[in-house]
Structures are given as structure tokens and as C-alpha cells.
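Researcher: Please predict.
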Amino acid sequence: MKGRPRILLLYSHRPSGHARAAEALRRAFGDDPTAEVAELEMCRDLYPVLGPAVARAYLELAVKTPALWDALYDHRGVARATREFREVLHLLQGFKLRERILAFRPDLVVCTHALPCGSAAALKRRGELGCPLAAVPTDFSVHRYWLDPEVDLYLAPSASAARALAGEGVAPWRLATTGIPVEPGLESLPEAGGARRALGLDPTRPTAVLSGGSRGLGPLLQAAEILLARAGPAQFVVLCGHNGDLLREGRRRFGEDPRVRFLPFVEDIAAVLGAADVLVGKPGGLSMAETLAAGVPPLLFEPLAGQERRNTQFLLKAKAAWLAEGLDDLADRLTRLLQKGPEWVELKSRGRALGRADSARRARGALEELLGARVATISGSSSAGRAHGSGP
């Protein structure tokens, strides 16, 4: 490896948590002039028709047939039965991916989604990818589709996930527990009063953030209506993600109320979480990692089947979140939490114990170690070759 190491970040599609994780990693390397980092979005860059169709199919399954999706999600039998199909799929995807990888000539490939990770692993098996491969799961439990002997390093999202991966046969030297990579700006949050003023809110009122993830999913309008009526002096920020219809309708219905702000997709999540006493939202892995890293207690609502329910189980077991069952329960629980009594303090403390605001820096360190091992291996091989008379 000569010159600056070249790192390629692979993810599936935007908007998504795995795209935000890749962006967090890119920013963590952003101040390093000795590395060249690039991103590749498989759905848009390689499969602009197939990619969105796959994303829509997942949402249809998770929303309309949650019991079926829960039964299929991470099922050992399903994973075994689909292994050959997935290998063929990775082979088909690999033709375009191989061209893009060879054009960039990476020294390290880092995947924040299982689909491109499987495709990159298939390329390694066929000898078409000669550099290390790192996997970065972005949920608190790791789906079996991530498992592949060609992965050189897993950046585990939690200690329990690292233990689960070890239980699946992943060797200790292929594991680094870094947490899910989040925006580096979460390491230094703005002061709450100032953050609220910047959002056009009262700096003294208790404040909750309502989030439907990057797609603005869930009954956020209904939740805002009942919370404004029942949550006392509280004020709210509603994150609409890329859901333009939700943004327009929210501003139309509540635009005159100074206690609520509807925002489009937010790049600087630290500016919003810095204003929050509680986050009400769906338990996407990246969203929850950001929330815990900011020290904001999460109140979970309407998790989707599959990974969101697994994230819910993880957070409830750790006693780092509450789960609301229905809008009335949501209003009651949020009112209790915004009083910032012992229950709020305990949630905040447990969340801080899980949250890792420095996760992107930790991930960068682990990836640099992997690159360092790569350099040492290449140097050692070159030295051995010269010693045996096979060098230049």
C-alpha cells in the first residue's frame, strides 16, 4: 500500500440509518489528510430501480404483515434456506460493484448494511477483492445475514452484540466494541436554553422531540395533537425526516402554535437533541444510538416488526427506555418524564451508560488498527519475498 490509504464506505440506500452511520465515519476521518475516504450508495449508484423497490418491500412487510416479518426476521432456518439464493444475488450484484471497487482501488472496504457486506464478501471469496473488509451493524442486535468468514472485523454496536457474535463463532480478534457510529458533534452538545432559542422555542419550557425516523413514519400528527392538549407546559419539536406531506400538514395545522415546531430532515441532530428533555420515537438503531449518546431519555412508540422490535427489547432489558402502548399511554408517560423526577434521572443515567458519543472516533481507531495490520502483513510478505530472492 503506497501513499494515503483509500477507504470505501458501502451502504444500501438513503435515507437510512446505515447511510448516517457511513456519514459519521466519513466525518470522523474528515480531519485526517493521510486517508482518502469515499462513499458508495448501492441502490442509487448501482441499482436505481431495484434498490427503492427492495426498500419499499421491506416497509410493506414490516407495516402490513408484522407477524410474518417477525417470524422471518433473523430466523436460523430462513438464513440457511436462503444462503444459496443470497450468494447468487451477491454474484449478480458483484459485477457492477466490482467495477466501482476496482476503479477506487480501496485499501479497506467498510459496510454499514448487510446487503453490500455480503456482496463484498462474495467478491473476496472469488479473489476479486484483495483488501480487508469491515462490517458495521447499525442495530443493537446483529442479524445473521451479517455473518461471513470473509469479514475481517466487526464493529459491534454493544457489548451484548459482541458476545452474541462470539457465540456465532466470530474470533475475538475480529471484534471491536465501538458502538454504532454517530455524528461526532454529539460529543459536544449545545446548552439546552440556547438550543431551544435557536429552534424558536421558549428556553425555559420542558421540551420533547417527536421523531418518525428518516422517513417520518408513525402517527406524529395525532401524537402532537394529544400531547399539546395534555402535556401541560411542554413544547415539542416534530422531526418529519424526508416526509414532505407530514411537514406541510403539520405546519398547516399547528403553524400558529408557539409550542410546536415541525422540521424537515435535520443534518445537525446535535442541535435538536441538545434542546430535548425526552425523545419520543421509533427505535431505529441509529436514532437510538444518537439519542443515548446525547443523554436524552427515549420514550418508544409503535416499533416496526423486525429490527425495531429487537432494539426495543434491548433497550427495555437495559432499563434505558420506556415503551408507550397507544396515544393515551404516550401522553401519560411523557407527562411523567417531563417532570424530570427520579424516573427521568434513572433513564438518563442508564442511557448514558449505553450511549457512546465517541463511537465514530472509536470506530476510526479500530479501522486504523485493521489498516495497520494490513500494512504490516504486506511489508512482512515483501521482506520475506526479498529474503528468498523473489523480490525486485
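Model: The radius of gyration is 22 Å.
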